[in-house]
């Protein structure tokens, strides 16, 4: 059960970070034998600028990408499964392109060009560690221009293994190191907490970490690594509670607790909407007001939808009706 919680956190985390910049499918069903891709991302050409603030993760997402995060070191079989998913997606895209060619030929129109390699998603296997033996087994090697910890397989496979614990401790790798383990993850959480409050991804990351901490704390059986993570996240959780309590005391009434939380929530929603749409007009402001009163259990899943759905659908779901 603990493994499931971590896997769900990783998928929600990657989805929330990438959704403002393109289309996220999580999970993505693959044809043939039922296989599920953790996160399938297709960038939006008009939103690509958002990816720059995600550093190395943003580089991965410049083109269609399959992201497969692992809480424990990925085994050889798991890496093989990731490669199989990518090959099945590649075969599906080629069949789809061929159907398009035949359809246009029947209509005496110019046939589509051959499927470009850049249209085939690259699979990024995110694992806390990767031994030299395992990298050698898959023929994975470093590539000039990429940081330590990123190892590419043969070009025809369009795949890379990312050993998170080997990544340099620089701001560009922060959003990936949050998915690490032990000291690597703890340091990344420290850096995340220290980000400016106006960083639109900071609140998203912290909100998901709060939920992870609560889910782990509710588990009857946890391992030592999970208990250490709970303890690391406890100060953040307590700090959030203290801020709400302080706000409540300052207001001198019980409503202060809810108002303090709502102000933090308002900042999170408005920052996310500004990243996606550049500014907030009256229609988008109505979405903010609709989401403010929700409970934490209702709010977090909707936050992910907020970062993914197109404007028209957001207004239809959450905008106030006149």
Outline, from the CA principal axes?
globular
Determine the oligomeric state from the structure: single chain
Structural class: alpha/beta
Ranges where pLDDT stays below 50 over 5 or more residues in a row are none
Write the layout of secondary structure elements.
Blueprint (H helix, E strand, L loop, with lengths): L1 H17 L3 E4 L2 E3 L4 E3 L1 E5 L11 H6 L4 E5 L6 H31 L15 E6 L4 H6 L12 E3 L6 E5 L10 H4 L4 H13 L5 H19 L5 H28 L3 H23 L4 H10 L4 H11 L4 H8 L4
Parallel strand pairs: 5-6, 6-8
Antiparallel strand pairs: 1-4, 2-3, 4-5, 7-8
Helix pairs in contact: 1-7, 6-8, 7-8, 7-9, 8-9, 9-10, 10-12
Task: Characterise this structure.
The chain has 322 residues and is of the alpha/beta class. The chain folds into 2 domains: 1-180, no CATH class; 181-322, no CATH class. 55% of the residues lie in helices and 11% in strands. It has 12 helices and 8 strands. The strands form 2 sheets. It has a 6-stranded mixed sheet with strand order 1-4-5-6-8-7, with helices on both faces. The chain has a two-stranded antiparallel sheet with strand order 2-3. Helix 6 runs parallel beside helix 8, helix 8 (224-251) crosses helix 9 (255-277) and helix 10 packs across helix 12 (311-318). The longest helix has 31 residues, at 76-106. The model has no long low-confidence stretch (mean pLDDT 80).
């Amino acid at each position: 059960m603990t493994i499931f919680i971590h896997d769900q956190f990783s998928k929600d985390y990657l989805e929330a970070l990438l959704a403002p910049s393109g289309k996220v499918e999580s999970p993505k069903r693959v044809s043939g034998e039922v296989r599920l891709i953790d996160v399938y991302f297709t960038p939006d050409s008009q939103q690509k600028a958002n990816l720059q603030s995600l550093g190395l993760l943003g580089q991965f997402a410049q083109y269609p990408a399959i992201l497969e995060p692992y809480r424990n070191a990925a085994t050889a079989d798991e890496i093989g499964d990731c490669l199989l998913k990518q090959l099945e997606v590649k075969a599906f895209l080629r069949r789809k392109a061929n159907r398009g060619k035949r359809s246009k030929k029947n209509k005496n129109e110019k046939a589509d060009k051959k499927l470009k390699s850049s249209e085939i998603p690259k699979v990024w296997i995110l694992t806390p560690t990767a031994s030299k033996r395992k990298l050698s087994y898959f023929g994975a090697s470093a590539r000039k221009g990429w940081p330590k910890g990123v190892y590419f397989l043969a070009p025809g496979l369009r795949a890379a293994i990312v050993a998170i614990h080997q990544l340099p401790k620089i701001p560009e790798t922060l959003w990936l190191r949050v998915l690490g383990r032990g000291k690597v993850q703890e340091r990344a959480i420290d850096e995340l907490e220290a980000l400016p409050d106006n960083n639109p991804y900071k609140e998203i990351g912290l909100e998901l970490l709060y939920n992870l901490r609560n889910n782990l704390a509710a588990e009857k059986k946890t391992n030592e690594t999970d208990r250490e993570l709970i303890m690391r996240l406890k100060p953040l959780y307590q700090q959030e509670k203290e801020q709400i309590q302080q706000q409540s005391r300052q207001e001198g009434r019980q409503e202060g607790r809810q108002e303090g939380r709502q102000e933090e929530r308002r900042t999170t929603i408005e920052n996310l909407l500004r990243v996606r749409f550049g500014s907030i007009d009256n229609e988008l402001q109505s979405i903010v007001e609709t989401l403010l009163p929700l409970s934490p259990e209702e709010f977090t899943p909707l936050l992910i939808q907020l970062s993914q759905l197109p404007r028209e659908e957001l207004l239809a779901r959450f905008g106030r009706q006149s």
